[in-house]
Amino acid sequence: MDYYSSYKKTPVPRISDDKILERILALKKNSNISPNVFSFISSLAAGFKKYGGVTRKQYEAFCEIEESYLHNESRPSDWALQYNDKHREIAHICALYYCDNPPYYGDLSYRLLYDNNFIPTEKQYRALTENKYSLKVLQSHYAESKYKVNDYVSLRKNNPTRIRESTNLFVVVQVAPEPVTTAAKGTKKYKILPLDNKETYIVEERWLKKANKK
């Protein structure tokens, strides 16, 4: 008999309180939970039925998720009362960035974008909006636009785009057509149109330069 066939797995301790399963199923019915949370909750419920309970780590993860969804339904905190349109705007900008750059803050971002009644806790809000990546995104978003509609621009030689046009001359047709999705300086986006083509492109500010029409 070799080592692996003689090895016996140590049973994983599980919490088997049926009330936990009831809580899991109740949260699963919440129409505002994100796809990621729904997947986790579904897996948790299936595991509970199969193994007769959940592990301590699974239970702690569930409690954290449950609390984040239930706190919004309780009495509003001082923070919730102070949460205003500017907070929502900033949170929305950062949420769009993280939805485009998973996996961090995925569930929080989903709720901010798709649940109009959701108010994050102050801790959640600060973690999402005050980290070094979000601060760069916000800086680019709120920075004054370097170019305006009808300006002529050219692509810089070091640009990473795959735009191939006969002439390197474009006109700006829209400023900020899409949210900032790169945490770096000069990442506000522009929709540009080649002078000899009808196909438009979305390009970040840092890859453009001023051009004069000849």
Give the rounded overall mean pLDDT: 90
Coarse shape: elongated
Element string (H = helix, E = strand): HHHHHHHHHEEEEE
The helix/strand class is alpha+beta
* Total helical elements: 9
Radius of gyration: 25 Å
Distance between the amino and carboxyl termini: 84 Å
Q: Percent helix among the residues?
A: 40-55%
When the domains are counted, the total is 3
Beta-strand proportion: 5-15%
Largest sheet: 5 strands, antiparallel
Report the count of strand segments: 5
Runs in which pLDDT lies below 50 for 5 or more consecutive residues are none
Strand line-up across the major sheet = 4-3-2-1-5
Features of the shown structure:
alpha+beta; five-stranded antiparallel beta sheet; 214 residues; 5 strands; single chain
Task: Furnish the topology, listing elements before pairings.
Layout: H1 3-6, H2 18-28, H3 35-51, H4 56-70, H5 78-82, H6 85-100, H7 106-114, H8 122-129, H9 132-142, E1 152-155, E2 170-175, E3 189-194, E4 201-204, E5 208-210
Antiparallel strand pairs: 1-2, 1-5, 2-3, 3-4
Helix pairs in contact: 2-3, 2-4, 6-7, 6-9
Explain this structure to me?
The chain is of the alpha+beta class and 214 residues long. It folds into 3 domains: 18-73, no CATH class; 78-130, no CATH class; 152-210. The protein is 45% helix and 11% strand. The protein has helices at residues 3-6, 18-28, 35-51, 56-70, 78-82, 85-100, 106-114, 122-129, 132-142; strands at residues 152-155, 170-175, 189-194, 201-204, 208-210. It has a 5-stranded antiparallel β-sheet with strand order 4-3-2-1-5, with no helix packed on it. Helix 2 packs antiparallel against helix 3 and helix 6 (85-100) crosses helix 7. The model has no long low-confidence stretch (mean pLDDT 90).
